[in-house]
Amino acid sequence: MTQAHERNGTALLEVKGLRVSVGETEILRGIDLTVRKGEVHAIMGPNGSGKSTLTNVLAGRPEYIVTEGQVLFEGKNILGLPPVGMDPETRAREGMFLAFQYPVELAGVRTWQFLKAAVDATREYRGLPQLKIREFDRLLEEKLELVEIAPELIKRSVNEGFSGGEKKRNEILQMLLLDPKLAMLDETDSGLDIDALRIVANGVNQFKGPSKAIVLVTHYQRILNYITPDFVHVLVDGRIVRSGGKELAEQLEEKGYDWVRESSDSPAAPPAAKVGA
Amino acid sequence: MTQTLARYERYLSDLRGLPPAGPSWLQQTRSGAVERFSELGFPTARRGNEKWKYTNVGPIANTPFVYPFEASANGLAPADIQRVVPWDDAWTNLVFLDGRYSELLSSPRSADGIAVMSLGEAIASGDPDVERHLAKYADFDDDGFTALNTAFVADGAFIRVPDGASVDTPIHLVFLSTDRGEPTASHPRVLVVAGAGSKSTIIESYVGLQSNRYFTNAVAETVLLEGSQIDHYRLLLESDDAYHVGTARVRQCADSTFTSRTFEKSVGLGRYDLSVLMDGPNASCNLSGLYMTSGTQHVDNFITVDHAKPYSTSRLLYKGILAGKSRAVFGGTVWVRKGAIKTDSMQSDKNLVLSPDAEVDSKPALFIYADDVKCGHGATAGNIDKNSVFYLLSRGIDLETASRMLIYGFASEIIDLVRVDSLRDQLERLFLESLPSFKFEF
């Protein structure tokens, strides 16, 4: 753990012994993860390892059932319904953001109205004054330029008729507008060509800062050439089987997931899973 | 038959009280309709009657409605009307009180040779187009409601667009049921003749000003001559207790285009029976509708498109939003007659059912008797999509607002089709204001 000495930021997200099921199937089988302000974490793993489940359960998707464990965001419990935990909209307003792996098309809901409603709700919760239409448009224009989305697109229904790359860039646009503390990017890089990947990475790097944290879920090492992670965690079968610095991603790219699968069977693996915690 | 007579005696005695106005051809038509109505009555027997399978008109038959022999503005000011119906002073607005033309509240125009006037006036002036077209498309042989309306024909709206004329100003017909302190029945009538190559926009609004139960029995006949185009809008803004039966018969000649959007926002029991006959090659019709029901409302759209000639195109897109214990019925039937080759037809009916107590009966049907055609149909019913709801929540938007945004988004596909800007804006507001209160449950 070369970065160990850098870990002096405030803990933003603390996941402790999290177990999650969908229906009868257990997907996450005890996750421990601590994300501090200023950090970038990459979560890598093969298909079906539980990567998306982790980000979705953190965002509050109702289909997932937490059977065990605790999740704190800025020290506050988020699991469960209020007043014990937080509903999805409260998590978002508190500063958690999920960029969807498959951004949803909202028929008939205009992008502008959608973005304005989201910004209004978030600002109101944070005690910030509501933006006038002109102020909002200026902010929007600035962010649109950053993610290279044509202004015409925001007159359309949300994500309808958007290309794959436009949908992903629209997620980054929403992240920039809502200005969360923690951004979770669920395979935002998948399906992107090299130009779109560069734009997305550029948006994420703009967002990065000492008070922000990023959790990047990905299959491939490719995006990590643009967004440098402080930590890489390997998720296999619902457990973090290995954690390390960015060199771990390179090793994975080289040796494949079978390599961690095999080595995770060794007795040394369980402590490794706790390194990030 | 005795029972039928007793039930409908009230209408028949009202009809006897009407002055035998009009030329002899009209008197003949009317007396034929009286006779037919006294035989048919209303279609209360639904067994084996596919047309009325899901809609019970018993309550209409059982209510003793009073026929208002005279129109009375009753101190109504234009502002009272503009409050309850989309309105734009720039339109040609014709107002009808209980089926009768109100000169006081209307602003007719006859520029560019276009005739927009009271049907009563057109009859009185002996207009040959009235005799040529009135009661020629809305057949009452098998339809008690149309027979009754025809029996009462004395007034209504008459629109004639001259050949080649392009009319930019929308023509708005407002049929208003006034508050008479007792259940009344009115029988609005519309006749539209679109001249060859003409273009026009017509808005038909049916509005209730009273909280009483009343009955609107409307019949509209429209003929589109060669190459003409009509943009038609029909708004149902009746009182929540009202009964409304609307019958529209459209005949399209070659190369004509009929576009019609129906917005059914409020009524107690409503039925719209629209039938389009494509009677010339290369005609096209584009029909769509939005119905929103709640409480115990019942709305029935019975749409028929008849491709009688080759190379014609039809599009049907209807959407419903159902809440409470309401019920919606959609019957869409497309006929492709022998020889109507190259017919291109697509119909779909999509419903958002927001309550377990609401019900929709959707029956799209196709009857094809020609080769080389392209036809499709489909119907859906369901709740709003949970992934969409979660997406909005994850952006900090609360559940109720998220639900509203998605319900409105569903409706806006139809509202966005409105090509008259001020009408679209007002409809958007009307529907937004009356969206059912609803919170999605995961």
What's the story with the biggest beta sheet of chain B? 10 strands, mixed
Kindly provide the radius of gyration of chain B, computed on alpha-carbon positions and rounded to a whole number of angstroms. Answer: 21 Å
Total count of helical runs of at least 4 residues of chain B: 10
Strand content of chain B: 35-45%
Total number of distinct structural domains of chain A: 1
Name the CATH superfamily classification of chain A: P-loop containing nucleotide triphosphate hydrolases
Shape of chain B: globular
User: Mean pLDDT of chain A, nearest integer?
Assistant: 91
Q: Which series of helices and strands of chain B comes N to C?
A: HHHHEEEHHHEEEEEEEEEEEEEEEEEHHH
What is the CATH-assigned architecture of chain A? 3-Layer(aba) Sandwich
Distance between the termini of chain B: 55 Å
The largest sheet of chain A is: 6 strands, mixed
**In DSSP terms, counting alpha (H) and pi (I) runs of 4 or more, how many helices of chain A?**
9
Strand line-up across the major sheet of chain B: 2-1-5-8-10-12-14-16-18-20
Could you provide a short overview of the structure?
Chain A is of the alpha/beta class and 277 residues long.
Written description of the protein model:
The complex is a heterodimer of chains A (277) and B (442). Chain A is built from nine helices and twelve strands. With 277 residues, chain A is α/β, with parallel strands linked by helices. Chain A has one domain: 3-Layer(aba) Sandwich (Rossmann fold). In chain A, the strands form three sheets. A six-stranded mixed sheet of chain A has the order 6-9-10-3-11-12, with helices on both faces. Chain A has a four-stranded antiparallel sheet with strand order 2-1-4-5, with helices on one face. In chain A, strands 7-8 form a two-stranded antiparallel sheet. In chain A, strand 1 and strand 2 form a beta hairpin. Chain B has two domains: 2-280, no CATH class; 388-442, no CATH class. Chain B has helices spanning 2-17, 24-40, 58-62, 78-82, 119-124, 128-133, 144-151, 386-393, 399-415, 421-433; strands at residues 92-97, 100-102, 115-118, 157-161, 171-177, 185-186, 189-194, 199-208, 215-224, 229-237, 243-252, 257-266, 269-278, 284-293, 298-307, 313-322, 327-336, 344-353, 359-368, 374-382. The interface between A and B is medium-sized, with 29 and 25 residues.
